[in-house]
Structures are given as structure tokens and as C-alpha cells.
Input
Amino acid sequence: MSMTYSAPKPVRPTFRASVAKLHLNTSSTIAIAVLIGMLLFAFLLPLALGTPNAMGDLSFGPPSLAHPMGTDDLGRDVFTRFAYGARSSLSVGILAALTASIIGISIGAIAGYSRGIVDIALMRVSELFQVIPRFFLALLVIAIFGSNIMFIILTIGLLGWPEVARITRGEFLSLREREYVMAAQTIGQSKRKIIFSEILPNAMPPLIVAMTMQVSSAILLEAGLSFLGLGDPSNPSWGLMLNEAQQFLTRAWWMAVFPGLGIVITVAALNVFGDHLTDVLNPRLKGAH
Amino acid sequence: MPKDVSQNGPILEVEGLHTILRTTEGVVRAVTDVSISVGRGEIVGIVGESGCGKSMTALSIMGLVPSPPGEVTEGRILLDSADLRSMSQSAFQKVRGRRIAMIFQDPMTYLNPVLTIGTQIDEMLRQHTGQNRKQREARILDLLRKVKIPDPERVAAAYPHQLSGGMRQRVLIATAISCEPELIIADEPTTALDVTVQAQVLELLKEIIHDIGSSLVLITHDLGVVAETCDRVYVMYAGRVIEEAPMQTLFENPQHPYTQGLLASILRVDQPVEELYVLDGTVPNLTAPPSGCAFRDRCEVAMDICRDQLPIPIATGPCAFAACWRIPQ
Output
């Protein structure tokens, strides 16, 4: 008897295949290059540079060979501070998004899978968080408890989870009714396994987009907080640099432009990257090339 | 060949099963007073139209009636004399897959689209066997070979959408037999397949059941499938079992008018299509089941008594009964 495939050669889900797929598109290639560059820049370069708060003799020095991004009002090298700023902005962004995603996915998954009273209770809690304007609650919490960087990360993370939870719950509500979930039940899989290994992988595409959005919004939120002077003053971040730059905007444009560009480029690259990650993780597209 | 059920005790015994669904329109009596027994090594068919309670019976046995809205309200379900209904959730999880496995109608939707075939079979093995990774990998290839899938290494690494319908159904069968369960429940296993593939899959299923010595409950609306595979048949109508008979007896000498109608409406090669018998009407609404016999409105030989009183099952032979007032007491 002859049994034929309906599709071309199946592809093993290897890392190589994923990377190959990632490079198919120009915009995603650029986004990934930017993100990798930014990560290397943020986590390796500060090791080679001096402390970000070392003051030099030259105040308001324009960009030059010695100071590629100029110097600020206190004579500090903007390039050094930009590199340190990248480190705090990216770690705030990534760690806060991770916090938000872990809490959001767990709560959303439990709510969507259990339905009923559990769902109602959890969703009302998430609504409580959602009706409070994120930025002002962050302001309040940091004003009261101080602006330690870990604290900023936790605050932003704790404020971001309802969005992720909502999306996860919606996905779970529909996916839990799928037949393969029933099939998993018939082979005696536990609830925990069904939630995490059967349903969650299917819910990933919208969640990945949500997670990259969380990273960018956390970076922006931290920049906003720092801009208002509520950042961690011992860790320069891009937002803090913008805050310091605002009073000298007409005298030293380089103090504002470089950290501003850093935020714009990173956030844009993250969003593009998120879009492409969903394509890569879709098994239907994997076999296509 | 029909086997004597009493020989070494039935593997599955369902007694007086009642399953209801609470909907906004009222309580649907999906399964009413169903009693079924399945002997060891026996292939038992459950036949009936859509909506007659076949699948709900299967789900009730598996303890997977969606709740809400469904609920098993009454009855005993004995697997090898152990009551499944009184079993704890965690104990039941060890039974599902390990001792009773299920094969479904549409193999596309019952396979998880984001996991490879190998992973999905592996889930069953990881759940129920203490084998290490290497042993499980070998077992997966072995199982795929057993269901006659060519190039098992490639298929194990493939995703469900890369396989044809027949291949996917074979994968489901491979998953179901991976722990060599004592009982397999197949719910319309060939309905979604092409006719030629249907025959292959049925043949394979029969062969495998025989090989691993388990029993099969085959749920279908297709009497052709029953004739090809089953030893004994239950006919269901409106949530009740209305006739039971060994396969040969049922086809040669159907007792209940509904069964007679079903058999008469099979398309045959030796008979012109114009003469095809059509069973008029549909299964009654089960939110308000009619009094008396549920089939009386479609029955050509209904009597007065059919309107008022539920027909009692009458033995019509060894291992055979039918619930109809027309059958002489």
C-alpha cells in the first residue's frame, strides 16, 4: 500500500532551522542585529569604560574623537553614560517584562483553564490593576519606597501582568476546548501538563508579541520615571540622561539626542523582532522553506 | 467470532448508565439507562444515528464528560471489576491511556498542531512507563512501524499538518496502543477518512487489537464498518440501547424496527438506488423525550401501547435482546 506525504520533507525543529528562518527577511535581520549589538554594547562595553560618574575638565564638550557623544554639564563622558544607560534600560526592560510575563501567563492560564469562579475572581483582580493608571501608580510606589533599580523593575513588572494575563486567558478559553486537549486527557495527562505542554505552546504567538511589547513599554516607563527624576540616580539610564539633558537642550543637543535615539531604536527593533518570532515559532511556516 | 462473555469475566461492564447535559433549554438526557458489557478480546460495536448518545457513552466511560454542562448521574462502570466512577482523579489518570485508550474521529484536530508526532506519542509513554529517553525513542519508532507507517524516523519528527489523514489516524492508533491497554474505545475512527483508507485503517485496527490481546469498543454510524469488524453490536436510539445482538444475527435477523430500517437503508451493489429505503424523520429532542417508545413517531409498525409505555427489553436469542412491543413476549 502506498502512503504519501501531503507536505514536503518535515523539518526538525532545530536551532539552525529557526535561525535560518529568522534571516529570511531584511527588517527582521536588521532588528536582530540591532538587538544583539545593543546587548553586547550594554553588557560588555561598560566593563572597558570608566565609571559613568567620573567628571572631566570639559563641560558641554561637543562630540569629538575623545568624547564621541560629547560631554555633559558636569564634564562626564556621554558615551560612557550612554553605555551604562543601555545596561540599566535593557535590564529593566527585560527583567520587568519577564516578571510581568511569568505572573501574567500563570494567572491567565489558571483563569482560562479553570473558568467559573476562579476565572471571575482572578480577572476582577487583574481589572483592579488595569483601572489604575500604570504610570501614576509607579510614580507613587517609587516616591514612597525609594528608587532602587530592583524596586523599579519589580514595580514595572507587577504593573504589566494584567495585559499578559488577559491575552493568556483569552487564548486558553478557546484552546482548552480543542480536541487535542481532550485527547491529552484521555491519555491520563495531569492538568498541569495539559496547561503547560499542550495548551501553552499553542498560545505562544500572541503572547510573544505581548511580551516584546512589555519589554518596550517597560523601557519607556523607566525612561519616563527617570525623566521625572524618579530613576535610580546611581545607575544612569537613558531616561535619566534625558531628564538631565532637558535644561540644556539648546546648549548641548548631544546630551538628549543620543539617549533618545537609543530608546527609539531599541524599542522599534524589539517590536519587529517580536513579530518575526511568532512566525518562526509557527510550525506551519517551518516546513515552508 | 463472537466470544462467550462469561468465559473469563468481561473487561468492561456498564450498568444503568445515565448521563445528562444541563443546557439553557433544559436538561438533555444524553444517555439513559445504558448497560453494555465487553468481553476480553471482543470487538463490540455501538451503532446509531448522530445525537443518539454513542459518544456521550464513550466519554462517560472515560470519565471525561465535559462538566459543566454534563454529568453522569447514575450507573456503575466497571473496568475489570473495579468501579471507575468511585475512583479518585489521580487514580483515574493512571487508568486513562494505560488501561483504557481512546481513538478519535478527526485525527487532525485531535493532534496538537505545535508538537511533533514523536513528542505526542512520547507523552503517553512518559506518563505511564518508567522508560528512559532511549527506550522510549525506540518504542516510538517501533509503534510507528507497527501501524505500518513508512519511514518512521521522518514521521516522528514531522508535525501533524505534514501528514495525510490516513497517516494521522495511524498515529492516533499508535498512541492508543503504546501502553497496550486492555480496552480501546474508538469513536468513529474512520469517518473522516477516504473509503479506501477506511478499509486499511479498520484492518490494521483489528490486527493490532488481536496482536496485543485487548478489547475494542467501536462507535460508528456506519453499518458497513460494523459488519467488517465487530463480534457483537449494540444499537442505540435516543440515548438508549434498543437492541443487542451478535453481529451475524443482527444483520440476518434484526428485531427492532429501527435496526431493520437502518439495515434497509444501506446502499447495496445488487439493488438499484431508486429502491433505497429512507428512514424518515430525525432523532427526537432529548430535552423532552417523548413518553413511551422514542422511536414511535418514525416507526411504521407503531401501536397504541408504544405511545404510553416504554418497551421492555426482551431476549431474542443468546446474547441478544430488543426493546420493542412488537416482539412476542
